[in-house]
Design a protein that fits this description.
The protein is an alpha/beta fold. It has helices at residues 18-25, 34-46, 64-72, 82-90, 107-116, 126-139, 177-185, 207-225, 251-262, 275-278, 311-315, 407-411, and strands spanning 4-7, 10-13, 16-17, 29-33, 53-57, 76-79, 98-100, 120-123, 143-150, 172-173, 190-196, 232-234, 268-271, 282-293, 298-302, 321-323, 335-342, 351-360, 365-368, 389-394, 397-402. It contains twelve helices and 21 strands. The N and C termini lie far apart (53 Å). Bound molecules: ligand LLP. Ligand LLP binds next to helix 10 and helix 11.
Length: 417
C-alpha cells in the first residue's frame, strides 16, 4: 500500500495533487511520501522481536530527507561506502545501528567506521579480513565482524541483481567459511559476532530465502562445534515489490517463515531491506515534451530520461506509467494510443516504458511509479542533463529535500584549458 492515489481522476501524493508539485518545483521531479516510508518501516519492525533490527539499505535511496525520516523512527542502516557512512551520520543515525557491507572497503573507510563505532563489518574476503584486523590493531580497537557467506542458491531474479550464486563476486563460499571463521577467531583486532548473507534483490518467492537460511543454520551449527559464538544472523535485503503483477511475500510472511526455521536458536536477526521500504514510497514526475506518432511506433518524448531513471534501460524493468490527470475533459487534444515513453538522451536504450496505452497531449504530466528505490541514486549527468529535484511530501506539506542541479553544479571542479 502507498499514499499515492487518484482522487476524482487526479493523482495525489498524500494530501497534495502532484500536478501542484510539478508547478512548484518543475519536472522531472522525484516525489516521496513520508507516510509510506514510515508505514513500510513499521510493517517490517512489527514482525521482529525487540533485539532484531532493520538496517535500511541506504543504496536504495540515500537522500538525506529519506534517511532522516527513517533515523527518527529508530531504523538502523546498511551502508556500502564511506560516503554512505557520512550520509547516515549527517541524517542522525545511531552508529551502533549501522552495519557496513560492501566488498571493497578502503582502509580509510575502515578507520572512519571504527572511529564512529559502527556495529558490525560484513566481511567479503580474506584479504579484507586481514586488512580490517591490521587497521583495528593500529587503532587499538576491536572490530566486530560477520562474514558474508555465499550460499550458492538461485534467487530467481534478474541476473544483474542476483548475488548468491557461486559465480557471483559477492561473499565467501559457504563451504570455506568455517576455516575462515577459525582464522578470524585468532585475530586480536577482531571480534566475531555474526553471519551475513544476501542473495539478491527483487525476490518474489520465499523458497530462496529459506534455502539460504538452511545453509546459514548449518554453518551456525558447525561454528558452535568449534566454540565460535554467533549472536546475530544478518539475512540481507532482497524482498521484492509489485511493479506490475508480481506478488512477493509480505515482510510478515517472510519473517514468520524464517523464524519458524530458526526454531529455538537464540540468535537475533538483522534485515537489510532497501527496495521494500523505498520503491513504492516514491514516483518520478515527468512532462510530455513532444508526441511523435509514426506508422511503426508512437513515441512520447518526455523530460525525464535514462540518466534520471536507468532501471528500464539497464534491467529491462517494467515500471508503471500513468497519466497524472485522468479527466480527459480537461484536455481535448489528447491522443489515446500505444506509446513508447522515451527520454531525449542519444541512446536507443533510453526509454522509461514501451507499448503503454496512454491518453496524452504534449504538456501533460506522467508519473512513473515505484521509483523511490534505485531511481535518483542511480542517476547521472549523461548528456549534461542536470539531476532531478527531490521532494518529500508529509501530509499537506512538501519539503524540497534536494534542489535541482544547476549547470554550475555539473561543471564544478572542471577546467577549461
Ligand atoms: N544488502 C546488500 C548487501 C545488498 O547488496 C542489497 C542490494 C541490499 C541489502 C538491499 O536489497 P533490496 O532490499 O533493495 O532488494 N539497482 C538494482 C538493485 C540492486 C540491489 C543491490 N543490492 C535495481 O534497480 O533493481
Amino acid at each position: 500500500m502507498n499514499h499515492f492515489e487518484y482522487r476524482d481522476g487526479e493523482l495525489y501524493a498524500e494530501e497534495i495533487p502532484v500536478a501542484q508539485l510539478a508547478e512548484e518545483y518543475g519536472t522531472p521531479l522525484y516525489v516521496y511520501s513520508r507516510a509510506t516510508l514510515t508505514r513500510h518501516y513499521q510493517v517490517w519492525t512489527k514482525c521482529l522481536s525487540p533485539q532484531d533490527m532493520i538496517c535500511y539499505a541506504v543504496k536504495a535511496n540515500s537522500n538525506l530527507g529519506v534517511l532522516s525520516v527513517l533515523a527518527k523512527l529508530g531504523s538502523g542502516f546498511d551502508i556500502v561506502s564511506g560516503g554512505e557512512l557520512e550520509r547516515v551520520l549527517t541524517a542522525g543515525a545511531d552508529p551502533t545501528r549501522i552495519v557496513f557491507s560492501g566488498l571493497g572497503k578502503t582502509q580509510q573507510d575502515m578507520r572512519r567506521a571504527l572511529e564512529v563505532g559502527v556495529r558490525c563489518f560484513n566481511i567479503e574476503s580474506v584479504p579484507e579480513l586481514n586488512q580490517l584486523n591490521r587497521v583495528a590493531e593500529e587503532m587499538g580497537q576491536i572490530a566486530s565482524i560477520s562474514i558474508r557467506v555465499n550460499p550458492d542458491v538461485d534467487a530467481k531474479t534478474h541476473p544483474y541483481i542476483s548475488t548468491g550464486l557461486k559465480e557471483n563476486k559477492f561473499g565467501i563460499d559457504i563451504s570455506e567459511a568455517p576455516a575462515i571463521y577459525a582464522q578470524a577467531a585468532q585475530m586480536a583486532g577482531l571480534k566475531i559476532i555474526g553471519i551475513d548473507c544476501h542473495i539478491g534483490s527483487q525476490l518474489t518467492e520465499l523458497s530462496p530465502f529459506l534455502d539460504a537460511l538452511d545453509r546459514v543454520l548449518h554453518l551456525l551449527d558447525q561454528l558452535a562445534e568449534s566454540d565460535i559464538k554467533i549472536s546475530h544472523l544478518d539475512l540481507g535485503g532482497g524482498l521484492g515489490v509489485t511493479y506490475e503483477n508480481e506478488i512477493p511475500p509480505s515482510p510478515a510472511e517472510l519473517c514468520t517463515a524464517l523464524k519458524e526455521r530458526m526454531g529455538s536458536r537464540p540468535q537475533h536477526l538483522i534485515f537489510e531491506p532497501g527496495r521494500s521500504i523505498a520503491a513504492n514510497a516514491g514516483l518520478l514526475l515527468t512532462r510530455v515534451q513532444y508526441l511523435k506518432p509514426s506508422a511503426a511506433k508512437n513515441f512520447a518524448i518526455v523530460d525525464a530520461a535514462m540518466n534520471d531513471l536507468i532501471r528500464p534501460a539497464l534491467y529491462s524493468s517494467w515500471m508503471n506509467i500513468s497519466e497524472v490527470d485522468r479527466n480527459s475533459a480537461n484536455n481535448g487534444e489528447r491522443h489515446l494510443a500505444i506509446w513508447d515513453v522515451v527520454g531525449s538522451v542519444c541512446e536507443s536504450a533510453d526509454f522509461l516504458g514501451k507499448d503503454r496505452e496512454l491518453s496524452i497531449a504534449s504538456g501533460d504530466l506522467l508519473a512513473v511509479h515505484s521509483a523511490g528505490a534505485y531511481g535518483q541514486v542511480m542517476s547521472s549527468n549523461y548528456n549534461t542533463r542536470a539531476r532531478a529535484a527531490e521532494v518529500l511530501v508529509d501530509g499537506n506539506q512538501s519539503i524540497l529535500v534536494r534542489e535541482r542541479e544547476t549547470f554550475e553544479d555539473m561543471i564544478r571542479g572542471e577546467q577549461v584549458v
